[in-house]
């Protein structure tokens, strides 16, 4: 590879990263606004304008940033930056709006699984570094929460990769493969049931992953005063706010990429210059639907669970669900149970 | 420092009860209900003084609460405003002769807006928060 080519690749990666960062933050805040408006309407309120998260954001960056006396300053200030950076880095590996991901390799899915942990881990570190008892309780709860949802999440991801490996053999963990080969088409009726179960599991893991109701025990404002974030103010709080917004987009995009990778342009046969536009709009709609079902509806419908109930929910019913999904998909691959759907 | 417009559209409120009878507190909660819905102005109750722009105090300050009020006030990042809701915090009200009272609030921390009433109506509380915007605006003008 010549020097010019290397430079070109690096330049594209940098430009792409900046683009994805701006996109992720903008869309994340937008969906936060839509989510708050929808939730308000469901509770028969008028609700804040959709621009509200942007205003909150600007305000937080204007406010004074306090570093508490008992905190470890460098860790305390580093944690929000790591959280945001890791969320954006995850977004680089996900196909957005019908385009191929900016970075891709053979084991993307595993990498995404690990990258998803980093923002939560950064919050835990920040919580411990702030030297407040509330933040410590919050950080411990966040760790327990992470341990709980990783289990069903891992089973789901492994099952999907296993199924893809059965069908195509090469690069089962690459998101580009999943994106170009929708999982639904590879199974019969039994496997279809399995995938529906896995989709449900992934939808229920999402609110845990981004610490939303009913799994927001680490931040529980009414009992531990904001938990992990209790000592954070100004710019640092703003960065966590952004990381949360980007992570919502990440989880939404992950579900869209695995389960709904269809592009409207290929279905309707639209070509040429209009195809990307149609695909991006369609992607936004899919993302909105996923966030609506995984975050907004759940948030309105249920109250906060206690931390032991959270662990129970993830370890018993959800893990069982994902295991049943795994078994159904395994049965499906044997000829005895394979009832073809004819697609 | 110039405060951007977004500051006034997004005031986060931390509520502290310094010995109130709970009457004022219920009226504050009423302002959050669908009927008054202060969230549509971007006003939000937060759980930590570090996140807050406005400190909302109800109740006369009892001896036990003096240090806590001071701490909460000092923990808030600048720029900030303080609102006292109810007669108790403003003047001491029926309890003004009590041996256990150190308040009213303005003898302990600087207060920007008083909302009188026992308890004040939610409209009055929302109006108080609006007045706090004005205070932040004058702050902006002075600097
Ligand atoms: S002002 Fe009235 S309602 Fe409010 S705390 Fe005092 S006595 Fe209670």
Q: Characterize the biggest β-sheet of chain B.
A: 5 strands, parallel
User: What overall geometry of chain B do the principal axes of the alpha carbons give?
Assistant: globular
Measured by residues with Cβ under 8 Å of the partner chain's Cβ, the largest interface is:
A-B, 34 and 23 residues
Q: What value does the Rg of chain B take, in angstroms?
A: 14 Å
Percent of residues in helices of chain A: over 70%
The assembly state of the depicted protein chains is heterodimer
Count of distinct strands of chain A: 0
Order of helices and strands of chain A: HHHHHHHHHHHH
Distance between the termini of chain B: 6 Å
Report, as a whole number of angstroms, the end-to-end distance of chain A.
Answer: 43 Å
Tell me what the CATH architecture of chain B is.
Answer: 3-Layer(aba) Sandwich
Residues in helix, % of chain B: 25-40%
Strand order of the largest sheet of chain B: 2-1-3-4-5
The count of DSSP E runs of length 2 or more, i.e. the number of strands of chain B, is 5
Topology:
The complex is a heterodimer of chains A (343) and B (143).
Chain A (H helix, E strand, L loop, with lengths): L2 H40 L9 H11 L10 H20 L15 H22 L3 H36 L6 H6 L8 H21 L11 H4 L9 H26 L4 H5 L5 H28 L5 H27 L10
Helix pairs in contact in A: 1-3, 1-9, 1-11, 2-9, 3-4, 3-9, 4-5, 5-7, 5-12, 7-9, 7-11, 7-12, 9-11
Chain B lengths: L4 H5 L2 E6 L5 H10 L11 E2 L8 E5 L7 H10 L5 E5 L1 H5 L21 E3 L6 H21 L1
Parallel strand pairs in B: 1-2, 1-3, 3-4, 4-5
Iron/sulfur cluster binds next to α2 and α4 of chain B.
